[in-house]
Design brief:
Elements (H helix, E strand, L loop, with lengths): L1 H17 L3 E6 L5 E7 L5 E4 L2 E4 L1 E5 L2 E6 L6 E7 L7 E7 L4 E5 L5 E5 L6 E9 L2 E9 L1
Antiparallel strand pairs: 1-2, 3-4, 5-6, 6-7, 7-10, 8-9, 8-11, 11-12
């Protein structure tokens, strides 16, 4: 009986730890905080066409970035919520050899990026909005 209760408690605690969101920080040698990473364990789903896909969402200060679907078959959507006219935003995508395959220096609140002509593989998307710079890996199927 005690073993059953102990196994149940350990299993419950393990399940609770998988669903947690957390924030981590990166510091330089002088002890100054250089980066803040927001790890979101649970994501929302969205319907793109007839296929349900995950929405990758990151909230930083007053801006919120969403990117979907990833992996993509060709059309990638990048949304920047709370983007004002005063904040300049740009989106760049690079292949793993460092070649720039896409650049939009005047990104708006909703951006559709066509990657259908690119070969399948992994790409790096860099989004700059004001002083915020974020990177994501994009998988093209």
């Amino acid at each position: 009986m005690k073993k059953t209760i102990l196994v149940f408690i350990i299993g419950f605690i393990s399940l609770m730890s998988f669903g947690q969101d957390y924030i981590s920080f990166e510091y330089d040698d002088a002890g100054n905080r250089t980066n803040r990473y927001i790890h979101i364990a649970s994501t929302k789903s969205a319907y793109v066409g007839d296929v349900e896909t995950e929405v990758f969402n990151e909230i930083l200060e007053e801006l919120s970035f969403k990117m979907y679907p990833n992996p993509t078959k060709g059309l990638l959507t990048v949304e920047i919520e709370n983007l004002t006219g005063e904040t300049n935003a740009s989106i760049s995508i690079y292949d793993l050899q460092g070649r720039q395959i896409y650049n939009n220096s005047n990104a708006v609140a909703s951006n559709a990026i066509d990657l259908s002509k690119q070969s399948p593989g992994t790409y790096i998307m860099i989004l700059k909005a004001g002083d915020t710079i974020r990177e994501w890996k994009i998988v093209k199927e």
